[in-house]
Amino acid sequence: MKKIIIVAILLLGFNANAQDFLVGPTISYQSQAGNLLKVGGYYLQPMAGDSFGLKLEANAQFAYFRDAFRVIPEGSVTFYPTFDNLILPFVEGELTPYTVTPKVGLTFATIMDIAVGYGFDTKIKEGLKPIKGFTFSLGFNIPLNAF
What we know:
Blueprint: H1 2-13, E1 22-31, E2 35-47, E3 52-65, E4 68-80, E5 87-95, E6 99-108, E7 112-121, E8 133-141
């Protein structure tokens, strides 16, 4: 019962507008040692008076490698150096149990992302080909609280 009361107080005390942050689902296609479908969620926080922003993402990568269906967890951090234009540059770092992938790209109003990068193999799992090398991705972030 104490936990429910604490959660209720925190939720009622949390007073944020849609302009304070963006949160929602994300879906993307990535080509890296094969085709990957990534589905997850994101949280984007503008900082320093909208001068720059950070986005945190948690995804599940769905892939079909070597005649087997795989689901690979992924986390990423994206840095937006500015929020002054409709088309924004960004730098992103993705981490899976098998790969570290730095990327650079452009986003259209933080809704559609296009990025390129290079994945570095950190661990090879038996029965799974190395997920490394050049990567290209196209993603869509759907803000649930933008309006």
